[in-house]
Amino acid sequence: MRFIIIIIIIIIIIIIIIIHRPTYSTKKIRKDFSSPSQNRGGASIVLKMPPPTELQNHRPDIEEPSPKIPKLQENDIQSSLLRVKRLSENAVLPSRGSRLSAGYDLSSASVAKVPARGKALIPTDLSIAIPEGTYARIAPRSIDVGAGVIDADYRGPVGVILFNHSDVDFEVKIGDRIAQLIVEKILTPDVMEVEDLDATMRGAGGFGSTGV
Prior knowledge:
Elements: H1 2-20, E1 29-31, E2 43-45, H2 52-58, H3 74-79, E3 83-86, E4 104-107, E5 112-114, E6 119-129, E7 134-140, E8 144-145, E9 148-150, E10 157-163, E11 170-172, E12 177-185
Parallel strand pairs: 1-2
Antiparallel strand pairs: 3-6, 4-12, 5-11, 6-10, 7-9, 7-12, 8-10
């Protein structure tokens, strides 16, 4: 008897659910972007897109991370430049022969003669400010030059000593490239006096002691 009552209750619940279940009417909906007069039969919907400005107002604000560009300080700009002052109209600014050339060509600012087996100081009529943390050295081109070092705090005129090892005089004209200027980084550590130095395998050996 109880089993029959339970079945009847279940049937009643199912009937109630079916009666109160919401019904959905299916209509054929098609997108129609033509004028209403051209629609024949069936339901039509004209889709209206909001203007772009309205879409922009409703879209969420997305902030993209902007790349951080380090500010170039004035000291950094000066330290990366080779500042040159011309002292006469005959002075020629240093220049490199190609993009990957290591040295800047230095030119003569006067007519000169280097005697055979002799030497002569050739002016460039340039004053050069070498970037801090570097120094410049004078290197030869087609003729031998005396070793020269230009410190970062030197502001005087730059001259080049030419050595002529041949038996004939060497003529120099205005604008002739006589040497090259090479800028190199330099380390200037503080001096500290010590009692002893670290021992090494070489020790005090020099003048070809490691082999020929």
